[in-house]
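User: Just a sanity check before I run the rest of the batch. Below are the C-alpha cells for the first item. I only need the designed sequence back.
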C-alpha cells in the first residue's frame, strides 16, 4: 500500500510540474500543451475512434515490418553462421548496425521514402533485421569452437563465454 501511495504521489508531482511549466508561458502550448488539454484530446479521440484507428495502423506497421525483418534476418543469420567469411564480413556489419537505435533510421527513411507507410516499415525492418541476423550465430559458432581443444585455462573460459 505504501508503495502505491509513493507512486501516485510521484506522478501527481510530475503532472503538477508539467502544469506549472505550461502556466509559466515559457513554451508555446503547441510544444508543451497543458495536462488537461492532453487528457481532453485523448478522451475525445477515444470517443470518436481515431485513437483506436491510429493504434491499429501502428500495430499493422509493426507486425508487417517485424515479419519482413524476420524473413530477411533469420536466413541471413543462418548463412552467416555457416561461413567464417560471412561471419567476419556480414556478421560484423550486423553487429555494428544492430547497436544503432531504430530512431537513427528515421531521417534516412524520410529522405528515401517520404512520409509514407514505407518509411515507417523501413525503420521497423532495419531495427529487426540485424537483431535476428545475429540470433542463429552463437550455437553453430559455439559448436565449431568446441571441437578445438583449449590450450590454456583462460582459453577454456574465453570459449565458454563466447569470446574465443
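Assistant: Here's the designed sequence for the first item:
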Amino acid at each position: 500500500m505504501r508503495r502505491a501511495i509513493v507512486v501516485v504521489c510521484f506522478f501527481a508531482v510530475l503532472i503538477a510540474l508539467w502544469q506549472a511549466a505550461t502556466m509559466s508561458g515559457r513554451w508555446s502550448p503547441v510544444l508543451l500543451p497543458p495536462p488537461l488539454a492532453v487528457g481532453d484530446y485523448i478522451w475525445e479521440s477515444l470517443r470518436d475512434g481515431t485513437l483506436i484507428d491510429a493504434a491499429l495502423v501502428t500495430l499493422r506497421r509493426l507486425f508487417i515490418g517485424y515479419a519482413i525483418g524476420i524473413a530477411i534476418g533469420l536466413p541471413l543469420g543462418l548463412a552467416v553462421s555457416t561461413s567464417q567469411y560471412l561471419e567476419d564480413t556480414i556478421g560484423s556489419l550486423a553487429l555494428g548496425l544492430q547497436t544503432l537505435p531504430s530512431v537513427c533510421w528515421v531521417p534516412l527513411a524520410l529522405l528515401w521514402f517520404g512520409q509514407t507507410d514505407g518509411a515507417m516499415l523501413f525503420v521497423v525492418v532495419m531495427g529487426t533485421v540485424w537483431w535476428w541476423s545475429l540470433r542463429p550465430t552463437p550455437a553453430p559458432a559455439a559448436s565449431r569452437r568446441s571441437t578445438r581443444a583449449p590450450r590454456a585455462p583462460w582459453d577454456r573460459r574465453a570459449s565458454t563465454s563466447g569470446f574465443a
